[in-house]
Amino acid sequence: MTPQPIPAPPTATYRLQLQPAFPFAAAEAAVPYLAALGVSHLHLSPVLEAVPGSLHGYDVVDHARVRDELGGEEGLRALARTAREHGLGLIVDIVPNHMAAVPRFNRALWEVLRDGPQSPYARWFDIDWEAGGGQVLMPVLGHRIGEVWDQLKVDGDVLRYHEHAFPLREGTAKLPLPQLLDAQWYRLGWWRLARTELNYRRFFTISDLIGVRVEDPEVFAATHGKILQLLREGVLEGLRIDHPDGLADPGPYLQRLHEATGGRWTVVEKILNDGEQLPAAWPVAGTTGYDALRHIDGLFTDPAGAGELLGQYRRFAAPPADRGGDWAATVRRAAYKVVTRELATEVDRLTRVGSLICTSDPALRDHAPWALRTAIRELLVRLHVYRPYVNGGSEFVLSEEAAAEARAVFAVPEEAGAVDVVRNLVIGRLGHGPDQVAFATRFGQIASALHAKSVEDTAFYRYVPLMSATEVGGNPGSPAVSPELFHAYCARVQRDWPLTGTVLSTHDTKRSADVRAGIAVLTECPDRWAGLLAEVTEQTARADAPAAPDLQVAWAAWQTAVGFGRGVPEDPSGGPGDRLREAMLKHVREAGLHTSWTEQNPAYEEAVARFVEAGPGGPPLHTVEEFAGALRRHLRANVLGAALLHLTMPGVPDVYQGTESEYLALVDPDNRRPPRFRPELLRRLDARHGGGDFPGALDVRGLPEVSGLPEVPGLPEVPGLPEVPGQPEVSELPEVSELPEVSGASEVAAGAAGVPGASEVAAGAARVPGAPGVSDAQDLSGPPDLSAEKLALTATALRLRRRRPELFGDAATYEPLDAQGPGAAHCVAFVRSGEVICAVTRLSLRLADAGGWRDTQLPLPEGRWSDLLSPGRSFAGHARVAELFTELPVALLVRTEPGTGGDGL
């Protein structure tokens, strides 16, 4: 087939989580609705063959095949054809860093375990053969091998252990079991040995995902061939790259990928901390957008109120500083725990490389392995980014201050010289030979795993004064972002990475954007939150309901209920109480203070479940819902404001499935359910505007409800590998349970019932958006269905982007627009390319408390401007903000050409 021309970059993408319950056919049925919504591309989760039953697809087993359970390659091509007929392209998520370490499904790994280092597939995997005495540890046994001896079965040329199957080395099948095991290229071991004896690189601490060496050109070609073919043939148009920080050297990999794809739009899942920049040499469009999430969320967080919440939290829960009381101390303790326990085997391997370097250099020979190991740990825990890069300023990331702190750990100053050796190896000051490069590479790979596990997966669950801030890419220690910082960030993105991805919700966010929006309102009313907490605590005590086993859990559960519990309808998989209970059980296991995934405390977990069922998920939830209902108009300002900023700021917005309407979801697997679309809301929207005034309106009559999903196909084995008759699917060992999945769950209705509100107007006063009942107030309760409002806003902005991509693309401009007057700090506005203005309300409750907008004005650029979100309303000159936000707490203005009387766009 003739290669297709390079397609234009997306104007907006829509993320779909494919799984057996939502295959390609279900996505294809949704295409008319998503095209009408206004996106330019569908963004698909991984599509290559994965472990049967996988609900996420990141456990790839065969890069040469499109996943059968999703409909196979023909299903993907059919989706692409239908998408193309509706003007849509496909972006796909790829996983270069790892594969599933499940040999009965992974043909390449099967052959390595059978044939050892001589296998042509041995170069695929990052295996340290020497460390294992020539054997690869496969940590799959439920107990020590002596306790499961009789559960190992030889079946022809296959060794079986429950659902696991392993190949036998040629000529060994007839040996007695002890000799047979010793003769293999692998060693079956107790799963707990993975922490200290694993000799292959893995994804974070998950031993069921083995690292792949895509830095090898042959491995790159083999693992990317199918994806590149689909790109050349126009089936796919762009890529999302999962976890580039895990690769040996992401820069050269991305350069090879860029050349192989012809420069198609590609974004990387690189999480940037405050002040960190994406390496400028990476030939990508940008990140997947967690940096945008951090800046948008921070804008709707009141810094003073966040500080008050922190004080209340410390008084209520009294957590020790390093166990949730202080952010920096909590992160440091969590990092020590992860680096000394979960990542012990990775640190040992790095230490061996460092010792080899020192042994071969007379000037370094007397640095003992224990000193190098200590230096490695002490420097790793002091990193403030996911991964330092030698060409990305790692000498500043591994600062002299951090090195001085690490040296101070050593009792004997002379032994502290190991810190300088490690630091100089990482930043390339001790040469660039193979061992030195390997050391710097492995240090960076460990650093990324350490940061993810210690911050995202531990500290975020221990430090909980404001749970909207404990989000991927977030900074709980400094959660607020000023308008000035937000504008500076946007200007930098437009200048350096104008086609980067931006997100608000993803399959990895701990809470959906709308849940976070509800929690963020608490920073504007910390005293009200304290009153609610006292009330529900008293209610549960009066009812003699089970108390929380610790007060950090109580605080976290009640705060989650404020963001999540408002008006969530029952669904077949359980109501809000059931979903909250499951999320809180994951919360306490991730925190690891009283229970964990690998050392579960059943009594403690049962106490947590009973507390949630009787408290935040029980009768007191009604009190929480009333509390949230009273704040509904301010939640509305946050939800609509965040959505509009996301859709109009620099970058390419990615809309997560279902989030075009109000979407309440917690941590995975809650946020990975098959979506429920709302085409009826889109019909109402277009019908109201007659398909004319609404920009880019499409005929959505007859859009499918997308409720009946195709039958799920069978679960195939990898062709050519032995069948395992009668065995259950691959078991989830405790290390894998960090990524629990839920099967058969249907998505919660995206449109939670709104809270109707009558106008609350002070006598003789105008009405102020976001501040009912105060001077210049305007009823902000609006229609009772926030889902309809959010969908209208989303479709309007997406359709505008699709009609006029040049206003938002790489040649566009971004200019802050400053309001003037007493409420100026509560209006955030900017101009895109001189033709579009986005204006939103921030901290609307604080605005109400301060007296409303009063005489606040927004000086508009020359011309007349029409509000696409409130058709028929236009403004010029110095617009009174109270009038601008009469109907909604946000506005999307387009310049009207003089004399036309209509939309100049």
UniProtKB/TrEMBL annotation:
GO terms for biological process: alpha-glucan catabolic process; trehalose biosynthetic process. InterPro entries: GH, GH13_cat_dom, Maltooligo_trehalose_synth_4, Trehalose_TreY. Residues 708-748 are annotated as: Disordered. One of its GO terms (molecular function) is (1,4)-alpha-D-glucan 1-alpha-D-glucosylmutase activity. Residues 10-688 form the Glycosyl hydrolase family 13 catalytic domain. Pfam families: Alpha-amylase. NCBIfam families: trehalose_TreY (TIGR02401). This is Malto-oligosyltrehalose synthase. It comes from Streptomyces himalayensis subsp. himalayensis. The lineage of its organism: Bacteria, Bacillati, Actinomycetota, Actinomycetes, Kitasatosporales.
